[in-house]
Description:
This protein is mainly alpha-helical. It has eight helices and no strands. Helix 1 packs across helix 6 (71-83). The radius of gyration is 14 Å and the shape is globular.
Amino acid sequence: MPSTTPTPTRLPTPFESLAGVAKFLGTEEMSPAFHARHAQAIDGACAFLQELVREHPSLDMAFRAALPLPVVDGGKLVLQALSSIQFAEQKLHWFDSQMNTTLRALAPVVRDPALPTWMAECRWAVDGAAVNV
């Protein structure tokens, strides 16, 4: 299914980037060959998301609801879910470090010319944020 959502001309917010990363939760089912080619990076990103969800179940609903949406709209759901979470300083540092590692790992994945069209926005959400990491 081709993406018809235009890519914004600005850099993504952290919440939009997290929504873009969350789209990788669907790759194994929706695009198995692409997932297999980039399994290490994608599985690492999904493990990071699963750890967040394990500790903060409200994020699971936000990630699932964001999956079919444009990244900008999914980012709003992620922001809403994160705004109710109180991170301890140590956990905030962990989150920031893991997000940076995830973005760096996914940057070559979103640059792959074979990136499925339904994930086209992920290029902006991940690559735009990875520039600042």
